Amino acid sequence: MSIKKDAQNTINKRFRGFYPVVIDIESAGFHAKTDALLEIAIVTLKMNTLGWLQIDDTLHFHVIPFRGSIIQAESVAFNKIDPFNPLRGAVSEKKALKKIFKFVKKKININQCKKGILVAHNANFDHNFLMAATRRTGIINNPFHSFTTFDTAALSGLVFGQTVLAKACKIAGIPFDTSQAHSALYDTKQTAHLFCELVNRWKRLGGWPTHLSHRKKRDEIKSI
């Protein structure tokens, strides 16, 4: 059965004008104002004509510790990042954020959204580091919402009864290689898959679009 594109099947309608961007940050500690940001990756999203959320593009940077930053030994031992390895190809915080913000602004415009919204697993951590780095570098016109986030840990706790990324992915049927965990690029991709599954599962259950009849929702689900 052919299903026409519904007016609600757009990212700007689905998320009230916000454009979700999945982010993961690896750092040299837990304190956003003092500890070094070492790696950042983002995954942008798109929605097909039937309203199913999908992965779009990826951007990833290794980051040079900012001057005067603290490197917590236990943190770099945990994420296995050598901040001073020249083979990392690291760039400054300012360069990384400028490229990310420019990229996100382009996606916001394409999707006719008004602002980006950070999606992350335990989002408060990543949001704090992103905002601290933005203030530190003096970059203006940050495209992300200043305090609102989508936290896949909280959403996974609700839907799957699990808040750990690897365990939530496993229950959702998403492969997770623990040997690659704590790489910003890998964790961002898996978090993006998880967020898409959470949003799409709600749609499959008939929770979105809210205005559709139950019959039309069943027809949409059968069409995928």
Describe the 3D structure.
With 224 residues, the chain is an alpha/beta fold. It contains eight helices and five strands. Strands 3-2-1-4-5 form a five-stranded mixed β-sheet. β4 (115-120), α4 (123-137) and β5 form a beta-alpha-beta unit. The model has no long low-confidence stretch (mean pLDDT 93).
Output the keywords:
224 residues, alpha/beta, 8 helices
Q: What's the layout of helices and strands?
A:
Blueprint: H1 11-14, E1 18-27, E2 37-47, E3 53-62, H2 73-79, H3 93-110, E4 115-120, H4 123-137, E5 144-151, H5 152-159, H6 165-172, H7 184-204, H8 214-223
Parallel strand pairs: 1-4, 4-5
Antiparallel strand pairs: 1-2, 2-3
Helix pairs in contact: 5-7, 6-7
